[in-house]
Amino acid sequence: MKIFITLLAILVFPVYALAAELTNDSLAGKWIFTHMILDGESERPVNRLMQFEPGGAVLNYDAAGKEKSRAAFVIETGVIVYTDERGAQRWKVVEFSADSLHVNHSGAEMFFKRH
What we know:
Blueprint: H1 2-21, H2 24-27, E1 29-38, E2 42-52, E3 57-61, E4 67-76, E5 79-84, E6 87-96, E7 100-105, E8 108-114
Antiparallel strand pairs: 1-2, 1-8, 2-3, 3-4, 4-5, 5-6, 6-7, 7-8
């Protein structure tokens, strides 16, 4: 029984710790959406600048660095809900640190680096 509880703690604690450190303030700032991997197979470069603001706004920039569009985000436990003109997208957070973000949206793995 102790082994089961230990294994359960090892599996659950990292998810809890990940969710605890992901906040509007910790996500705030400029990020480069570097690339995505579709269905675990083909890697596609993106290289777009996005800015997450503490109040829940997202500014998307074009390749020239000019604002292209705006969206909104809300953080739920282990999920970033990104909403733009196409509707809400649930980005499951796979990994988050001060300098990198990796999310999964319906099989599309998306990778970001802090700018």
